[in-house]
From TrEMBL:
Residue intervals of the FAM194 C-terminal domain: 1-176
Transmembrane segments: none
Protein name per the record: ERIP6 protein
Superkingdom of source: Eukaryota
Organism: Chionis minor
PANTHER family in alphabetical order: GLUTAMATE RICH 6, SIMILAR TO CHROMOSOME 3 OPEN READING FRAME 20
Pfam family of the protein (one): FAM194
InterPro entries from the UniProt entry: FAM194_C (IPR029281)
Cleaved signal peptide residues: none
């Protein structure tokens, strides 16, 4: 960024490339988007809620409350059921310098513009048509990913309660106030993922305790 803060990172993890977009902060910068060469991509709102989520089959666009605004499937995708839903081109601005354009599975671009200079990163995924029939079903989240999601929701809920204490210090009922709708939605989604993922009962109980504490 013009401030000197790191904006975009591209790293290699084993055989995959990962592109990470960070917010314009010198320390503890939040991640605003993650794009992986295996087709699993996620963009986040400034409040940390998931904005766009994509995989090798298709994607979905969510509002800040966690409700789905639209979904789509890529052409020649391998959806287990349901009709093909075409993609309408999407362009979002993660911040004043970084934008994301989604035109297709292999046409996803991260654009960086600052001080009259522009850089573009193609973060789309190319899939051989002949290999589509052999693609595995969507991968379930691993144990580490589920734990990270659970702790993230837990931290966001703690921050929300802290804001309530600061804004309404004389309110004795602040601890009984419900969290925002998007946090409730994310909590329910994590609990649903726990029931569909191949994890131990002990870990499943731990994740439930984290998000429900």
């Amino acid at each position: 960024y013009p401030s000197g803060n790191l904006a975009i990172i591209v790293v290699r993890e084993k055989k995959r490339l990962i592109c990470i977009v960070q917010e314009d902060k010198p320390n503890n910068a939040e991640i605003q988007a993650v794009f992986k060469s295996n087709g699993r991509n996620t963009c986040y709102y400034p409040n940390g809620a998931v904005w766009i989520n994509m995989n090798i089959q298709g994607g979905q666009y969510l509002d800040q409350a966690g409700s789905r605004v639209r979904r789509w499937t890529w052409p020649n995708g391998v959806m287990s059921s349901g009709p093909h839903v075409p993609l309408s081109p999407i362009f979002i601005s993660l911040n004043r310098h970084v934008g994301v354009r989604i035109l297709g599975r292999d046409k996803i671009t991260v654009s960086f513009l600052a001080m009259g200079q522009q850089a573009k990163f193609n973060v789309g995924t190319k899939v051989q048509v002949s290999d589509l029939g052999r693609l595995p079903p969507p991968a379930c989240l691993g144990e580490d990913e589920l734990l990270l999601l659970a702790f993230r929701v837990r931290i966001l809920r703690l921050f929300d309660r802290l804001r309530g204490c600061l804004n309404f210090p004389s309110n004795e009922q602040w601890d009984k106030m419900k969290p925002p709708a998007y946090l409730i939605t994310q909590t329910l989604k994590i609990l649903q993922l726990c029931t569909t993922s191949d994890i131990s009962d002990e870990l499943r109980s731990s994740i439930r305790a984290i998000v429900n504490a």
